[in-house]
Amino acid sequence: MATYFEAECQELAALFNALPSTLPEHLPSSRLPPQLDIVLLQEEGVWVAFNRAMHAAFGDGPA
Fold first, then answer.
1. Which of 11, 13, 54 is nearest to 32 (CA)?
2. 40 in Cβ contact with 49 (< 8 Å)
3. Predicted TM-score of the model (pTM)
């Protein structure tokens, strides 16, 4: 009998193995920007660049 942790790992492995071998770089229907702003990333860091990209894609969230 597998432990809970082993069962979770097996489930995660099954999900991972179900992914396609290649993923498109940018889906036409995606609201996410195709990449982070490299200049902002270098000047301000990863979290600022990530937050800017998420804000551009999703705005301020539900009103």
1. 54
2. yes
3. 0.45
